[in-house]
Amino acid sequence: MLTTNPFETLDGDKLREECGIFGIWGADNAAGFVALGLHALQHRGQEAAGITSYDGAHFHSHRAMGHVAGNFDRDDVMRKLPGRAAIGHVRYSTTGETALRNVQPLYAELNDGGFAVGHNGNLSNAMKLRRTLNRRGSIFQSTSDTEVIIHLVATSQAASPTDRLIDALKQVEGAYSLVVLTEQGLIACRDPLGIRPLVMGKLGEATIFASETVALDVIGASFIRDLDPGELVIVNGSGLRSFRPFEKASARPCIFEHVYFSRPDSIVDGTSVYEVRKNIGAELSREAPVQVDLVVPVPDSGVPAAIGYSQESGIPFELGIIRSHYVGRTFIQPSQEVRHLGVKLKHNANSALIRGKSIVLIDDSIVRGTTSVKIVQMMRDAGAREVHMRIASPPTKYSCFYGVDTPERAKLLAAQMSIEAMRDYINADSLAFISIDGLYRALGQDRDPNAPQRCDACFTGDYPTRLTDLAESDPDASLALVAAR
Ligand SMILES: O=P(O)(O)OC[C@H]1O[C@H](OP(=O)(O)OP(=O)(O)O)[C@H](O)[C@@H]1O
Ligand SMILES: NC(=O)CC[C@H](N)C(=O)O
Ligand code: SF4
Ligand SMILES: [Mg+2]
After folding, report:
1. What gap in Å lies between CA 143 and CA 462, rounded to an integer?
2. EC no. (predicted)?
C-alpha cells in the first residue's frame, strides 16, 4: 500500500465506504452497550470494528478486523474496556488489506488529553489537508481520511477544546457524522448538510448517539431526536449543550440511506425506512407496470419495495429466491471475485414456485450489475417463462464521495450503458428504474431541481459539496463529471 497518497492504492483504502458509529455517556459498563449497538449497525460495515472507553482517568481501546461478534463478545476483551463513557465504530473499506491502523475509533494524546474519534462519511478534501499538514510536520499513523481531523484539532490555535474541534471541522469538506470521546465529554456532530445520519437517544441517565435508531432499539433506549445538520452536541457531567457552529446551509441528507443502506426497521430523518421502501415499490408499479404472474423480491433489501409493488399492482408477492443468512452483503464485499462468489452462495431459486411462471424481480439498485446478471439467469434456469426486472432507485451513474461503496464510474453499469443495453446485458425481458422524481414522491417530497432537498448525486451527479481532491488529483474525471450531467 502507498502511504504518500493513501487514496491511490491498488485496490486500497479508497474513499468508498459506509460505516456505523455509536457513543454513550453516563452508563456503567458503557462499552457493553456500544458492543450491542455496533452489532445492530453491523450491516453498515463488516470489515472491522473498534471500541474506545474512558474510565475517568484513562482511555482504553480495542480495535479488530472482522465482525462485532467474535471480537466484542469475549469477556477478556470487554473487561479491558472499563468506564461510564465509550464510543465505537464498524468500518467498511473496499480493500482486502488488513489495515488495522485504519480501524476506528482513531485515538491520539493531544494537549487537552485523550481524543478518540469515530467517523461515518468521507472528506472530499482530505488529501489536500493531509499534504498541508504533512508539510507542517504532522506525522500520520493511518491512511484514513478521518485522521486529518485529529491533526487539525491538535494544531488549532483556538482557545478551548470544543473550539479547536469546531475550527478543525470548518476546514474539512464532505460528509461526516462523528462521535468524539475526550476527557471533557462525549461530542457528537453532523456535517453542515447532514449527509450522513446521526440520532440521539436516552437510556436512564445515559445519553446515546448512533448512526441509526436500530442501535437504540437493541439496548432498549428511547429515541430522542435526529441531530440537526450542522449541529454539535456535547454531553458531560454538567449536562448536555448543543451548538450550531457552521454557517447555515440547506440540508442534503443521503437519499441512498432510504434505498439501501439503513436497516428497514430504522427511522431515518424522521421517516420509517420500511414505509419509504414500500412507497418506492408502489410508485415503481405505477411508473413501470408489467403483466406477470408473480412479484419476486431480490432479498434482502429488495423485499419492502417488492411488497409495495405487489400491493399497488395486485400481483401476488412470492419468495421466488431464498437467501442464505450466513453470507454477508455483496455490495460491500472487498473484491469483485468475492462479490461474485457471494452472490452465488447467497441466493437460490425456489424452483418449485418459479417453474413456468412469468415474474417481475424487484431489487433496490443495480451498481456493478453482478447481482442482476446472476439472479435473472438463476430464474431462467429455474424455468421462469418471462423475467422482468424493476429497480427501486434511478440508474446509479455517479460515484459517491461521501462514504458509500459505489465504485469508480467505469464500473457502474448505468454509467456505461443505456437502459436498453443494460436490459440486454442482464438478459431480462424488460428493465425499468424508478424516476428521481418518483423516488422523492415516495419520501413525500417534490424534488426541487434547482435545490434538491437531499443528496442524490449518485443518480444525478448533483454533488452538494466541492470535490477538491478529485479536482486536484484527476481534473479530467472532475470535468467529465460536470460534462456528464
Ligand atoms: O449490481 P450489484 O453490483 O450487484 O449491486 C447491487 C446489489 O447489491 C446490493 O445487494 P447485496 O447483496 O449487497 O445486499 P442485500 O442482501 O442487503 O440486498 C443491492 O441490494 C443490490 O442487490
Ligand atoms: N465509510 C465510512 O464512513 C468510513 C469512515 C472513514 N472515511 C474511513 O475510511 O474509515
Ligand atoms: S452520492 Fe449517493 S450514496 Fe453518496 S451521499 Fe449522495 S446520495 Fe448518498
Ligand atoms: Mg441486494
Report:
1. 28
2. 2.4.2.14
CB of 457 sitting under 6 A from ligand 3: yes
Give the C-alpha separation, 216 to 22, whole Å: 9
Instruction: Quick: pLDDT tens for 24-72.
Output: 999 999 999 999 999 999 999 988 999 999 999 999 999 999 999 999 9
Residue 6 has pLDDT above 70, yes or no: no
Q: Is there an atom of ligand 1 within 6 Å of 262 CB?
A: no
- Copy the grid coordinates of residue 72: 466484542
The three cell numbers locating residue 130: 493531509
Give backbone dihedrals phi and psi of 143, rounded to 5 degrees, phi first. -115, 15
Q: What's the pTM?
A: 0.93
Q: Pick left, alpha or beta for residue 247 (phi over 0 → left; psi -120 to 50 → alpha; otherwise beta).
A: beta
Is 195 close to ligand 3, i.e. is its CB under 6 Å away? yes
From the CA of 301, the nearest ligand is: 1
**For residue range 416-469, what is the model confidence (pLDDT) as tens digits?**
999 999 999 999 999 999 999 999 999 999 999 999 999 999 999 999 999 998
Enumerate domains of the chain plus CATH numbers: 20-252 (3.60.20.10), 276-445 (3.40.50.2020)
**189 annotated among ligand-binding-site residues:** no
pLDDT, tens digit, 9 for 90 and up, residues 284-307:
999 999 999 999 999 989 999 999
Residues around ligand 4, an ion, CB closer than 5 A: 301
Query: How much is the pLDDT for 340?
Result: 61
Amino acid in position 343: V
189 is catalytic: no
Q: Which listed ligand is nearest to 331 at the C-alpha?
A: 1
301 is annotated as contributing to ligand binding: yes
Q: pLDDT for 195-238, tens place per residue?
A: 999 999 999 999 999 999 999 999 999 999 999 999 999 999 99
- The pLDDT assigned to 96 comes to 29
CB count within 10 Å of CB 399 equals 27
Ligand 1 pocket, mutate which of 277, 330, 376 (most atoms under 8 A from CB): 330
Gap between the Cα atoms of 262 and 281, Å rounded: 17
Q: What are the start-end ranges of the H helices in 172-248?
A: 214-217
Q: How far is the CA of 91 from the centre of ligand 3 (A)?
A: 17
Residue of 279, 288, 357 whose CA lies nearest to 318 = 357
Q: In sequence order, what are the beta bridge partners of 200?
A: 209, 225
Q: What is the ipTM of this complex?
A: 0.98
Q: Are the C-beta atoms of 9 and 99 separated by less than 8 Å?
A: no
Task: Give, in degrees to the nearest 5, the angle at Cα 303 between 301 and 308.
Answer: 125
**CA 119 to ligand 2: nearest atom:** 5
Whether 364 has a binding-site annotation, put simply, is yes
Q: For strands 48-54 and 85-91, give the pairing.
A: antiparallel
